[in-house]
Amino acid sequence: MPTRLSSPTTRRLPLAALFLALLLVLPGCAPKIKIFASQATEPLKEYVVDGEGPGKIALIHLRGFLSTEPAQGMLRSQPSAVQELVNNLKLAEADDQVGAVVVAIDSPGGTTTASDVLYHELTAFKQRTGKPVVAAMFDVAASGGYYAALPADWIVAHPTTITGSVGVVFMRPKLNGLMDKVGVDVEVSKSGRDKDMGSPFRPTTPEEEALFQGIIDDMAARFYALVQEHRHLTPAHLETVKTARVFTASQALSIGLIDQIGYVQDAFAKARDLAGLDPECKVVTYRRDMYPDDNPYNTLDSAEPYKPSLLGVDAGFVLPPRAGFCYVWEGGVTR
Fold it and tell me: Which residue ranges does the record assign to the Peptidase S49 domain (predicted)?
């Protein structure tokens, strides 16, 4: 019988897979291509979502993977979570009728820098204005999502919230196994021994592992210190938190990570109490579009969660995580 040869398409598949993988792990080197991308240029406007009395509470949504990068799409790009939170805080600060802020958090965390910037901006807002901040946790407020909640004067978790995951993870995709199968190699010329540490094209050496662990330990120590500064945990509870496990709302309350289990309305009530506002005061949010029958659960016009993009299209279902240090709970990341 004649020998059956592989079709040209079949022979090219490994190289196509390698090319795709290279695009995914080298975001800083590969060109960023956008198709029909446009910026969200409409200004934020105030909309009332609850209450009709004097005074205001500003409701700000913080959701999805926390990043300083905008979310890219086929037709437009959305401001990053950091940019949008700062935009909202500026409006709340400029309005003398706004007596308090409620930050609704639904996030597994994000990059270490984005999480820390959010923490810094909320802390600076409180210092400049004296306006109290209440955090309202929804499905997930873990790792960087919890980090961002730390400056709040009061933290309310939904009865079904998952929180905690206090720690750091360093994610780095590896291609050396795939490259060995395909028969492709990468030559590197470098100025110092550790210049290419973390390279996806070769295994990590024990020396590099130790260096990375030192960075992780340093970043985790900052997280632990901030948790202790704001939550004043017992030594035993702090050691439990350092395992980086996640907690249910009732577990988080018993260990001291949150102040109350309740709903967003309870967060509004606490904000009114802390600011001395009228019990029927308005709850306002800032959007670029008007929605009929608006209410506090509407997140349509808040910053879209960061999603990896390939040629301007959401490609979270095929892309591995980008390399980087993150305050993130991997179990809570959806793609």
Answer: 127-277
